[in-house]
TrEMBL record:
A GO term from the CC aspect: cytoplasm
Protein name: Dihydrolipoyl dehydrogenase
Taxonomic superkingdom: Bacteria
Source species taxonomy: Bacteria, Pseudomonadati, Pseudomonadota, Betaproteobacteria, Burkholderiales
EC number(s) on file: 1.8.1.4
Amino acid sequence: MSNNFDVVVIGAGPGGYVAAIRAAQLGFSVACIDEWQTAEGKPAPGGTCTNVGCIPSKALLQSSEHFEHANLHFAEHGISTGKVSIDVAKMLARKNTVVQQNNDGILYLFKKNKVSFFHGRGSFGKAVDAGYEVRVGKADGSEDVLVGKQVIIATGSKPRALPNVPFDEVQILSNDGALAVTAVPKKLGVIGSGVIGLELGSVWRRLGAEVTILEGLPKFLPAADEQIAKEAKKAFDKQGLKIELGAQVAEVKTAKTGVTINYTDAKGEAQSLKVDKLIVSIGRVANTEGLNPDAVGVQLDERGAIVVDDECRTSAKGIWAVGDVVRGPMLAHKAEEEGVAVAERIAGQHGHVNFNTIPYVIYTSPEISWVGRTEQQLKEQGVAYKAGSFPFLANGRARALGDTTGLVKVLADAKTDEILGVHIVGPQASELIAEAVVALEFKASAEDIARICHAHPSLSEATKEAALAVDKRALNF
């Protein structure tokens, strides 16, 4: 088999494997390199998302939600269960099965699309006449050398650690360790109230842990619409998820008996929190370790991310980069869109990625999702707008589900009625946001959504009603 390819992709996360498949669909010879592996040493493509991120966290969220429903809500439906217990080992085994199914699915897709897969760590060798030399370091110490006319870097990101507090994945946990805790801790600390902190904090709270989240910022979820963030915070407070804002961590100490976090609170007063385990979720950094970008002239920025232009071209001709390793939101679906766009650009087509219509989702309960601009952004930008909202409390399907927390909010231009943002907190917000993304991509007006027939009873009717409310003519509230 020749080791010369039209396109070599380094990384098989959401951006990398999708880029490889799309490039193969376009008729290129493609290789994809990835080093993730199972405990048995088998290839595990899918990157952080599949292995220690999006997929396993959703599996645990689902399991823990079932547990909470059985404990707190089955009786409302006339279902008697007796005492409910959780088998953490079995829950983790199910999570691992879900992950493996996704790993195997990607390997199948590579085979189906004739993508050559190389299991190992990819790094640049040098520029050659035919393109670029890419080395694949294997676990046994051997090495494959590939040559790609075009190279796509999709090496993703890794968790940011606290200064002088490395992850040991036993007491100080990244998202990786937090997904593999073998028993429900009595007390769990979380530093950072972003997506990872909220989702994993929710998992272990539902299973019985006393969870305290320390957030350095004075506002909760400042990237979200303020009204939505307040509604979500109110729900989390009610559930017993303790979120302390304005907390500045000064010191973290580990001992056999647990972890102690010394910090100052929002009032500037010294506080101390002792927990069994601590999840640190203070952001992620681009993963370029061992990539050897200097060898081919690929430039990094001051944060270690790869510098790209608007079309994901790096400083080296014929080398591209997508996903978490470049600027923009660190989201799996953003990486996928960039991966497809780059493959199409290599083929001379016009790949499409619109950062303004990328949806954001937090898979807590209630779920939180949004697309477009927030109300505070519109105010800061001096944009005249109209707002309409509708509570799930007035939605028939939400009542039947027994989940009426939250609302849908639609923001539209005051003159043209074009939708500028849609913000949701409530049941299945992750699914409901898709309609809003389509609406923004096609520059729909609030009137457009208001005039579209939505199935009854459905949660999506709340979106229609919020669009009607923009014009102050909601029908059911």
